[in-house]
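Morning!

This is the sequence you dropped in the shared folder:
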Amino acid sequence: MSEFKPFFLGFGNGLKDSLLGITAIFRLDSETEKKEEEKQRKLVENQRQLRGMRTRPKTDNTQPAKQILKNMVQCCLLNGGIFWLSIFLFESYIIPALQWLTHLVFELVSGSSTHHSSVWYWMGPALSYVFGALWVLPLFWLSKPLNSLWFQEIADSAYRKNRGRPLGLVHISRGESVSSYVSRSIADFAFSVLLQAFFLIQGMLVGFLPVLGPLASLIHMCLLYSLYAFEYKWVNMDWSAPKRLAYIESNWPYFVGFGLPLALMTALPSSVFVSGCVFAILFPLFIISGNEANVSETNQFPIRVFRLVVWLTNKVFHKSTSKPRPQQPDVQNQSPSSPPS
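The structure's back. Tokens below.
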């Protein structure tokens, strides 16, 4: 059993970091205030030494902790207070109230409610479809870019609090052109999004395997959610996509444990939209956990679970980026004195 000990330790450390790292949100304010006070004190001392007089230090309005908390409140209000609550109210109160009202109308008009069940048989689903088409779907697609923007701001603020400036910005300050950095970032982002979509499909397909299918699908979702959470930090550390995937494959027990709580909580709701709300509310906490975590590395038995999706993504990218070269005119057999026909 000793050979399996690193796997169990890695899994346990990942699970512990995902849960205990969430408590870092309660330490953000105190840590930030201490850093701000220390910064202001040093600034005052430096100004006094340089100018020999008391000056009022300039205040820095960028406070990562407040920005993180603000974005987290916005995520909770949109996804929980508006999106999830509206679905809950419609299914739990509005639909039953309409069913009771139509039943009452049938009794008052016809004196009997025998036909109510047949009418409500199609009326109930029709109301649900209309609500989904006119409210749920538009709000779902509207929340996607807003959530992505807030997730990125939370991740950048948490990274700056712990590690300082992202390495990509450091490379720009050291001479890398902005256009080169932007094009490289866009290519990496597009590759990552397409790969994650393929991996999600792969995780859904392995769920149909007999006996071990549900477990394999759960492991896929754990790894995918861990990739989601850690990718913000790794991109700021200027890790390439192959390096990020290889790191997860080499230390998969840790990342299975890290992504397990979020995978289980998003699997509980039967509705895809409610599951998306749960993910959007909880995911910022796991972004913070990923920034705070120190990965327990195993590197003993890597699993190449991303190999197929990497191959598919490369195929799609090569096909989309490869363009036929324009045919060059054959001028070798033409005489210098005669122009080409």
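Headline: Residues 4-47+64-321 form one domain.

More detail when I'm at my desk.
O.
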